[in-house]
Amino acid sequence: MSPEGNLNMLAKKKKVAAMKYLGEAVLHQKAQPVAEINDDIRNLAQLMLETMYHYDGVGLAAPQIGVSKRIVTLDVPPPRDPNAVLSPGERELLSKMPLVLINPEIVSSSPVLEYYEEGCLSVPKLYAPVERPVSVVLKTKLLDGPEILLDCGGFLARAIQHELDHLDGIVYVQKVKSPAFEEIQPQLKTIIKKYGARGYKLNRLV
Ligand SMILES: [Zn+2]
């Protein structure tokens, strides 16, 4: 068998987890802290990364693959503008992507808010604006590194907030304000009808 054939075999063997969708119970509960970083956690992180890439995402939280643990994977690209002023967190972390965050926390948020269109692998083919702080101070253990405390801005701040919300059982569509919320109702209803647990009702937070 040619080396190329071998590679193709390996690619086909890659494991990808099934995605959980809006309305499924695991997405709407608080995830549990990771007590110890062991081989199970490393394997789970690897599965999350492969699943994130398979679905073409830039971030994934463990509940999105049905595991109620406080783990997030990120592969946030650098800003398109090469002259963009980077926050300390972007300077430190963008070159280290992909990252696996263990028990991440936001310890403070900037008072300045901005709207930005978000999408989510658990809410397919839908984008809607969410207002969030422009920067956050992230405290987290890295799977392959120390605990860090960094002020993160830019799209990194957006991705961190979106993914950490998943660890608290929050999906971004719960934070979409009117009138955008009303505009996405038909799509939300379709997704919830297809995947939602019996009796699930979207709980709006704004
Ligand atoms: Zn999401």
Structure characterization notes:
This protein is α+β, with helices and mostly antiparallel strands. Helix content is 30%, strand content 24%. It has a single domain, classed as Peptide Deformylase (Alpha-Beta Complex), CATH 3.90.45.10. The protein has six helices and seven strands, in the order H-H-E-E-H-E-E-E-E-E-H-H-H. The protein is globular and about 40 Å long. The chain binds zinc ion (ZN).
Bound molecules: zinc ion
Q: Output the radius of gyration.
A: 18 Å
Per CATH, which architecture?
Answer: Alpha-Beta Complex
Q: Count up the domains.
A: 1
| Sequence of secondary-structure elements | HHEEHEEEEEHHH
Helix content: 25-40%
Classification by helices and strands: alpha+beta
The CATH topology is what?
Peptide Deformylase
* Poorly predicted regions: none
Average pLDDT for all residues: 93
Strand content: 15-25%
Gap from first CA to last CA: 58 Å
Name the assembly state.
single chain
Question: Outline, from the CA principal axes?
Answer: globular
Strand order of the largest sheet: 1-2-3-6-7
What is the CATH homology-level superfamily? Peptide deformylase
Number of helical segments with 4 or more residues: 6
| Major pleated sheet | 5 strands, antiparallel
CATH class: Alpha Beta
Task: Write a brief structural summary.
This protein has 206 residues and is of the alpha+beta class. The chain has helices at 3-13, 39-54, 88-93, 154-167, 180-183, 185-195; strands at 59-61, 71-74, 99-109, 113-120, 123-133, 136-142, 147-152.
